[in-house]
Amino acid sequence: MELIKTETQSLDRKVLVVEDEAIVARDIQMRLQDLGYDVPLTVSSGEQAIVKAGEIKPNMIMMDISLKGQMLGTEAACIIREKYDIPVIFLTAYSDDKTLESAKKSEPMGYIAKPIEKNDLRITLEMAFYKAKMESERKELTKKLQEALDEIKTLKGIIPICAACKKIRNDVGFWQSVEQYVEQFTDAQFSHGICPECISRLYPEYNDVKI
User: In this structure, what are the phi and psi dihedrals at residue 18, rounded to the nearest 5 degrees?
Assistant: First the structure.
């Protein structure tokens, strides 16, 4: 039972590390593994990160902002977010406003400043996974709500209605009362009353009575 639990946790806690300094990348990988995360590999460029994100489908990516190659970590994170919807945590030695503003575009789950402290790593990862879980549940709920709204019956188009009795002709040629027709094709229900004009016409003796 414990083995099954551990394997399940590992499947849900796969992290891809993107860091162009090999020693730093290996250190992060080992620290994450010590914390119970599955870190199958590390890569050193944004281009590699995009490819490997599609191949191994990690649950989280830890990405340095400054990387080897033609692509910044912020650019790679935006592409990965759009293509695979995988959350990203940025690693950076730079905390200036311009860098942070650029990083915001990929909606990261957090930032870790270098040099990395083990406790900061642990807290940031746990918070990021929690936020990612909440975001996933929110998206699923939104999807279900949209599906429910799509299934709601609505009236549209031209509706044939009798000029005399006000009955409506349905799609198969039968005439129904307005109440029956609307209740059949929507979730609306009717309650009945009488308007002031009809009171005056049908019950003139009650004209002075306030309804």
Answer: -120, 105
Task: Note the pLDDT of residue 9.
Answer: 47
Domain containing residue 181 = 150-211
Confirm if 92 and 65 have CB atoms less than 8 A apart: yes
Pair 55, 10: CB distance under 8 Å: no
Q: Considering the domain boundaries, does residue 142 fall inside one? A: no
Token pair, residue 184, equals 């059949």
Nearest to residue 13, comparing CAs of 83, 61, 85, 63?
Answer: 61
Nearest to 12 by CA among 124, 122, 108, 125: 125
**DSSP H or E segment with residue 162:** none
> Per the domain annotation, does 81 fall within a domain?
yes
Within this chain, do residues 173 and 207 fall inside the same structural domain, yes or no? yes
- Measure the CA–CA gap between 132 and 61, rounded to whole angstroms: 12
Question: What ranges make up the beta strands (E) of the chain?
Answer: 15-18, 42-43, 60-64, 88-92, 110-113, 168-169, 175-176
- Count of alpha carbons within 13 angstroms of residue 142, beta-carbon side: 6
| Torsional sign, CA 175, 181, 184, 185 | positive
Evaluate whether 167 touches 175 at the Cβ level (below 8 Å).
yes
Residue 143 resides in a domain: no
Give the global pTM.
0.65
- Span 110-167, pLDDT tens digits: 889 888 998 999 999 999 999 999 988 998 888 888 877 666 556 666 778 888 888 8
